[in-house]
Give the backbone structure.
Amino acid sequence: MNTLTRTPIKTDTVSANLKDWLEAQAQQHQLTYLLAHADDGVIWGHFHQGHLCTSNSVLRESPPLHIETLQQCRIFGQEGEILLWKADGSWKAGLVTNADAERIQEKQLLLGTHGNIYASEGFTVLWDGAQGLKHAVPFTQIKFQENQKLAQPLRLLVHHYIDYDQDGLARITLSRLVNFTTDSTVKGGAT
């Protein structure tokens, strides 16, 4: 049975320069996207030619990424995910990779029935009809109908990894972010 690989990541330079640390980790581990939760909101991002671009570049309601307000941050892609979080006053980070680990694939629906693509920045601002809630996701391969309505909703691809206890009972041991898609079908279930 294949298992997940979990690797601790050094965080000694995170506080001094968060952006540089994130860019170095993304490049080293071939990670594409960022999702950060901060005291002042949610921040999406992507890495373009080694540089981090964040959602506040296209949406003023999106807060900038600052170490002072950061609660946790995930940088992710097909190759794996790094989770950065604060525990007992210090930053911790770990890399999860998953070559052939047994998993269930889920496509979680993201907020947004309408959108506007900012191709040069690599973001699409999404909102729900009359509610007015907005966020800018780092994905531009979206088709629209008339009046900026999405042809298909955007989804976040998540892998849920399965492990077994000594009695053979299965449980989800970890979940990680992988990618974006407008495809609603889940192929194959557990892989």
Notes: The two ends are 12 Å apart (CA to CA). The first strand starts at residue 5 and ends at 8. The CA atoms of residues 8 and 16 lie 19 Å apart.
